[in-house]
Amino acid sequence: MAEDDTFDPAKLTLTAVQKAQWATTPRKISRRRRYFVQVPWTWRERLDGATGHTVLLAMDLLYLHWKGDGQPIKLANGMLRIDGISRQSKWRALRDLERRGLVVVECRPNRSPIVRLSV
Question: What pLDDT shows up at residue 18?
Answer without folding.
Answer: 73
